[in-house]
Amino acid sequence: MKIYMIILDGAADRKINILGNQTPLEKAKTEALNQFAQNGQETMIEIIDNQIVPESDSGAMALLSYEPKVYYPGRGTLEGLGTGFIPKGYNYVAFRINFASYDKNNKKLDRRTARGLVDEELKQLAKEINEKVDLSKFKVEFKLLAFGHHRGILCFYSKEKQLSGNISNTDPGYKKEGVWGFPVSNYEPKPQRCYPLDETEEARFTANLVNEFEKQTSKILEKSTINEKREQEGKMLANYILIRDGGEKPKKMPKFQEKFNLTLSIYGQLPAEKAIANLIGAKFTLSKALDLQLDKKFLEDCSRKLIQDEADVVFIHVKGPDEPGHDNEPFNKVKAIELIDKHLIANLLNEIKKEDIVIVTCDHATPCELKRHSKDKVPILISGGNFKKDGSIRYDEQTAKKGKCPITKAIEILPYVIEKRNEMKDDKNRKSKI
What does the angle CA 241 – CA 243 – CA 244 come to, to the nearest 5 degrees? Predict the structure, then answer.
C-alpha cells in the first residue's frame, strides 16, 4: 500500500489562445495520466493560500503536510542548509541568486540572463567571484554556488558579526515581506540597492554587506573572460548578481515518521528540498538531469527507482514543465508534460500494485502569460486504493474543477490519503482473519 506523490513543477496554467484556448495540461496527450484519472478523483487545491505565491520549496513543504506559514524559514536559508554551506557555530544568512544581464545605457534588465549560460560558464563566473571578492573588512566570509542556467546560492557567515535575513531584495522582480517574496508586476528594470527592513544593527550591517558584495561582483563580472567572449558572440552578458529571499533560522519540524508512522523518500533536484528532507527526517535522493529532466532515459530510470524504493511514501519533484512557463513557451510546456507522461507516469501505471495510491499534482502554477509563478489553484489527482471514482476522464484544470475529491489545500493531501490508506489496510486485515 505504497503512496506515490508525483509533483509536476509548474504544470498548472491558464487557457492560452495559441493552444486553442486550452491549458498545456488540456492540450497534452497524456494517456497514462488519463488512466489514473479514470480510476480516481480530482479537485483544484490551493498550495498555501490566496495571498502567497508558492515557490518550489514552500510548495513541497505544504504538499508534505507542513504548514509553510508556520515552518517556512525562507528560500535562502533552505538553499544554504541544503548545500551544506552553513558551518556549525557561525552566524549566517543565505540567499538565492540569479545571474542577470543589465544594460546600463539602455536601462534594460534581464533577470535570468535569458537562461543562456551553460554550466561551464556558470562555474567559471562563480570561481572568479569566490576567489576575488574581499569582505575581510566586514569580518565575514562567503560561499557562492552557481547552477541551472542562471541560478545560484550565496551564504555569508561569521563568528564575530551578527547577520540578518530581514533585508530587501536587490532583485526588482520580487518584493520581500517577512520570509516571503511577492512578485512585482511593473518594476523598474534595474538592480535595486539593498536596505534593512527593520531598525536592528544586524539588518543594517547585512544590507551594507550585500551592497558591497554586489559592487565588487559587478566589476569582476564586467572584466570576466566569459563575458568578453559572450559579447563577441552577441550574447547577453552575465554582469550582475541579483539576490533575494534571505531567511530566518529554521524552526524545529516534526519528523514525518512520527507524524504518520510511515517512512518517506524524496527525489528532487533543489538543495532546498534536501534541507526539507533533513529537517523532517526523510531520505533524499538527488534526481537531476540535463535538458530540464526531459530525456527519456532519465525519466525511465526515475520510474524504476520510485518503484524499487522501499519507503512507504515516495515523493518526486519533476522540473520539466516549469521553465517553459517562465519563458512563455506553451508548446514546449505541452511537450514536457507529454514526455513525463510517456516515460515516467506510464511506467508507474504498468508496474505499481493494485492497492498502491498515486497522487499527481503541482507545487505551484507557472502561467505562460505571466512568465512566473502564481497563486492560482492547481489540479490534484488521487488514484488507486479504495478511493471512489468521481467520473474524471483526464488530468487537467477543467476536469479537476468538476471533481469530487473533498480536500481544498495542499497540507490536507497526506492526512486525507493516509487515513484512507489505513482504513483500507484495517479492512484488509479484518477480512484476512475471517
Answer: 155
Which residue reads 479514470 in cell numbers? Answer: 38
**Is-contact 52 180, C-beta < 8 A?**
yes
**DSSP result, 340-400:** HIIIIIHHHHHHS-TT-EEEEE-SSB--TTTTS-B---EEEEEEETTPPP-S--S-SHHHH
Q: Is the dihedral of CA 278, 281, 285, 291 positive or negative?
A: negative
Q: Say if residues 420 and 1 touch (Cβ distance below 8 Å).
A: no
Q: Where are the alpha helices (DSSP H) in 140-288?
A: 201-222, 225-232, 256-260, 271-280
Q: Are 134 and 75 in contact (CB under 8 A)?
A: no
Q: Are 247 and 78 contacting, i.e. CB atoms less than 8 angstroms apart?
A: yes
**Under 8 Å CB-to-CB from 89, ≥6 apart: which residues?**
159
Low-confidence ranges of the chain (pLDDT < 70): 114, 289-294, 433-434
The Cα 328–Cα 282 span in angstroms is 35
Q: Which three cell numbers stand for residue 50?
A: 490566496
- Please answer whether residues 415 and 254 qualify as being in contact, where contact means their C-beta atoms are separated by less than 8 angstroms: no
Question: Under a CB-based contact definition with an 8 Å cutoff, are residues 277 and 82 in contact?
Answer: no
pTM of the predicted protein model: 0.89
- Tell me how many helices (H) and strands (E) the chain has: 17, 14
Q: Which residues contact 106 (CB under 8 A, 6 or more apart)?
A: none
Which tens digit of pLDDT belongs to each residue from 360-401?
999 999 999 999 999 999 999 999 988 999 999 999 999 999
Which residues in 73-106 are b (16+ Cβ under 10 Å) and which e? bbbbbbbbbbbebbeeebbbbbbbbbbbbbeeee
Say if CB 156 and CB 163 are below 8 A apart.
yes
Coil vs helix vs strand at 62: helix
